[in-house]
Amino acid sequence: MDHFDAEGESTSFQMRYLIDRTYWDPETGPILFYAGNEGDIYSFYDNTGFMTETIAQETKGLIVFGEHRYFGVSYPYAPEDAFTPEHNIYLTVEQVMMDYVELVKQVRTDYNVEDKACVVFGGSYGGMLAAWLRIKHP
């Protein structure tokens, strides 16, 4: 949960993500990663046809949607406790970016695509996450 715990005693939580292989070509297709923002990941997936249909089909990409911690069902604590001062200290841009970095690493391993490009998308705050990920974790 805390990617920056100097003691190495960090706990973990279940982060939901979606993978769509509809148009994916494992030989040539990139990873097309959607940086989820403040909401349920299905609402973004269901409203992102340009990426999931047009871009995925044209690039033969593997679609991955990551759900932002503290939203949807990706809570590190019970939803009724998550936003209390003692629990929301892990709700930071730096933490969620590392969630996405770790998710992409896992997808690369699971799908044997370590050598493929990863293009990050997003809208509004998710678009800012995409830009910051490009800067901090090219």
Structure overview:
- The chain has 138 residues and is an alpha/beta fold.
- The protein has a single domain, classed as Alpha/Beta hydrolase fold, catalytic domain (Rossmann fold, 3-Layer(aba) Sandwich).
- It is 36% helix and 13% strand.
- It contains 5 helices and 4 strands.
- Strands 1-3-2-4 form a 4-stranded mixed β-sheet, with helices on both faces.
- The chain is globular and about 45 Å long.
- 28% of the residues are buried.
- The mean pLDDT is 95.
Feature tags:
5 helices; 138 residues; alpha/beta; four-stranded mixed β-sheet
Q: In brief, what are we looking at here?
A:
The chain has 138 residues and is α/β, with parallel strands linked by helices.
Strand content: 5-15%
CATH 4th-level superfamily: Alpha/Beta hydrolase fold, catalytic domain
Largest sheet features: 4 strands, mixed
Neighbour order of strands in the largest sheet:
1-3-2-4
**CATH class bucket:** Alpha Beta
Considering DSSP H and I runs of 4 or more, what fraction of the residues is helical?
A: 25-40%
The computed structural class is alpha/beta
Q: What does the average pLDDT come to?
A: 95
Distance between the termini: 22 Å
How is the topology of this model organized?
Elements: E1 17-20, E2 31-35, H1 41-45, H2 49-59, E3 62-66, H3 79-82, H4 93-110, E4 118-121, H5 125-136
